[in-house]
Specification:
It contains four helices and five strands; from the N terminus they run αββαααβββ. With 124 residues, the chain is of the alpha+beta class. The termini are far apart.
Length: 124
Amino acid sequence: MHKRTSEELLWQSLDQVPGYVYWKDTKGCYLGCNEEFARAIGVKKEAIIGKKDAEINHLALEAAHYAKLDQEVCRSGKPKWGSHELMYNQDGKPVKVVTNRKPLINAEGSIIGIIGLSLPEVWL
């Protein structure tokens, strides 16, 4: 499989994950997200890159909470499973989600951020 084809398949696969997938660097800046997450918060996937939660409409309401949990994962190197949180959708309505976070590790084994998956509680 070509590298380009593999990358396209990866993006298509992430966009089909039934949940909100996102990844951030150690400073809390988004490196990317899947279509489901972008749609839920009302932004384009490309527009989220390089931004922090505090800079994104409805995510700003819980930005300090998200940052604290993300930093715990980055510092400890341990996943954080099943965090019950509020996320505000594109209409500003609160959605209860359950979030799993893991350290995002590069090829050299260094923590470069976090990857998260949030599922609305109504889906569970």
